[in-house]
Amino acid sequence: MGAPDGLAAILPPERLLVRPMDLAAYACDASFYTLTPRAVVRPVDTAEIKKLCAWSRAARIPLTFRAAGTSLSGQAVTAGVLVDLSRHWRTLEVLDDGARVRVGPGVIGGQVNARLARHGTKLGPDPASIGACMIGGIVANNSSGMCCGIERNAYRTLESLRFVLPSGTEIETAAPDAEEELAAREPSLARGLLALRERVAGSPSLVALIRRKYSMKNTMGYALNAFLDFDSPLAILWHLLVGSEGTLAFLAEAVFRTVPDLPLKSAGLLVFPSVPAACEAIEPLRASGAAALELMDRASLRSVEGHPGVPDFVPTLSRTAAAILVEYQAAAVEELARQEAAYAAAAPSLPLVAPAGLTRDAAQQARLWAARKGLTATIGAMRPPGTSIIFEDVTFPLPHLAAGVADLQELFATHGYADGIIFGHAKDGNVHFLLSQSFNDDRSIAQYEKFTEDLVTTVVDRYEGALKAEHGTGRNMAPFVEREWGAEAYALMREVKRLVDPDGILNPGVLLSDDPRAHLRNLKSLPRVEEEIDRCIECGFCESRCPSRDLTLTPRQRIVLRRERARLVAAGDEAGARALRDGLDYAMLDTCAADGLCATACPVGIDTGRLVKRLRGARRGPIARSAAAACASALGGIEAVARVALSFPVRWGDLPRGAGGLPRTNGRPAASAVYFPTCLTRVLGSGALPASIVSLGAKAGRPVWIPPDVAGTCCGMPFWSKGLSRAWSIAARRAIARAWRWTDAGRLPLIVDSSPCAFALAASREALDAVNRSRLDALRIEDAVLWAHDTLLPRLAFPRRVRRVAVHPVCSIVKMGLAERLEALARAAADDVVVPLASGCCGFAGDRGFTHPELTRSATRAAAAELADGAPCDRHVSSSLTCEIAMTRATGRSYTSVLALLDDAASAL
Hints:
The protein is α/β, with parallel strands linked by helices and about 900 residues long. It has a six-stranded antiparallel beta sheet, sandwiched between helices. A five-stranded antiparallel beta sheet has the order 5-6-10-8-9.
């Protein structure tokens, strides 16, 4: 399939995607809709955007803008041309010491907040997806969240926008002549907007409707409140763009007014006998100053029973019970104390099942919030294979919240959704609900159709609520906009679309639709494929952690493509399946770092890297598997040959010279730990790391012992990463058996000097036999970072500190929860420590940095640029030799082990 005529004249081939693999990868967003685009384009500036708009008008092929693709209502899929903004458009400029921030649509919201954190501010919108969603979606959907209500959503906190209209007109609203420019370049649009404003002002019933609708959370339809809040065409227009879901203009840049990021918090889980009883508590808790009031019905609580932080008595609650997670936030201790006192005064009048106190303990608060935020993960993991997640959000006026929730529960029972759970932002009357739903047959689709009709009747007709509170109208509620707003307001919205996008080139069928059954078309079917894939809900949360996201595919896209292949095979479409393979092995398998960081962001804990390892193994023939097993059995000889080869005076690219001998130690009886120098240290290391570890142990009075037969011992990761299970098993069994002997049956800890190897040993259970599994359970395997932090640091002084150090936390350090300890080691030896906000997996991935260096270049580009823009550092450190090579390549600065830095700075107390 080729590109539609004319697109190749606008964009170079590398930014114009038309292969079946590429189109299928972008056919899904986080919703339950799927549409295959004609092409995917990646423009880099507004000049290209304007050309695309002109092309779209001429070709009569629509454009859909997509940032992170985390939208839950089908806003980011299209059968036209998809404009992918996720790889460019990453402007991020903090203004006025954090009071404002300028951002592009391709910046992840969580990254903005991380940059603002040093200034004590944050974005007003706080959606649960902020770690994955991008600014383009935050503005286009008028995002809000758990604490921001309607006062701090995107509409209320935006200061200015730069946008491109479908006509090609580009406006920077902060420019002093912006109003005049709009009037000059778009006179009919400017006049039309003023005429609509007069029409609204002349209709008391419409004014009252708009005021009422926007007194609560509401993202259904266009932001008609702009006609009441502003009186100039430009101000009206750019506020209409907020929440317009890409149907009116391209949003090129936004300036937000930030809000304080209050550092002090106090939280508690309040349990009530019923949902109505919990809802009765909302007003007094609001009056006490609560920042967050998160309602959870009994089904929600049941799904998180036994989770850390959830009280032990929750399983004993009645079937009607409900809970509210309350949180107070303050800038000063005195203010927090006043809020806690207000809660204590209100608590006796609350219909609580048991007395509930508040906690200031950050760890306990984190556990409570993890249980609340884990609700999506719980139902996602529990849903039957082949079903999608229906994740909806509605608003009930607060006086009707209890009745509305009760009616939702009744709807679940009526329509056969036994697994439905209800939770949400009770302070705002905003309720989320989750259901598992199959779209694989007509009966299931009819079930969803009947449920949706009853939902609309309940929310709109019975309670005059909003069908969409914060997820955006999308495809699934577009047919019901007129039902909610009425004919007069709906006609106004139609006129807005006609004025701004007269040719209808932007995201047709989203937000407004002529098709009353649009919400039942293009539904996503989910064939059963593999265990990891069957659990995936395609939310896209994993993508921000993926080192290949700017090169080939993300974890979500790898899963989408596996599903597409299964669909084609099941349909007997052999030609389609063959076409899908064009470039697939390179994109899916060869350039996946298989680092598992995706699992740390995935709501259901899917490790796509583990799947890729298995698929890599499946494509290996018996000869390759046998050769790998032979190598695993002969690692000692291979190690010796490699060390000798690297010792020759010829240069092997940027590899270190072959390692010399290991330092001598005094034997196990005098040792407090066994030190296992990993194979990379023994082959590629300069010898500095083993010497540093031995030296540090001696200075701290905790000497280590290096076993004399350590040669040939490997954690097995090189084989594991390639899916060579037999070779992995050989290496891992030998390593655990030797570690058992070295450590005197686990009496001494085993210190591992490379973080990936420490992680691999600890995670080697599936490669082991029963005997070595029991040994693994008894061993104390410690990454050298953990050992240095917990055991050595309290026993050392640091008289030779350096000024400034850059730290790269490798992916295994993050997965083991040791990133803070790594940073603490650097802080012990340096006055200032820099951890780039863009730090992530470097993509070296064992040998990927040698075989596919483009992966490492792509994965490290942002962190390297961040370091280059900052003040120079005296040292650069990490905790893995290959990752140090990767970061040295990326930055042009020599990275070494954090243990070497520590040894240089340390002395005995």
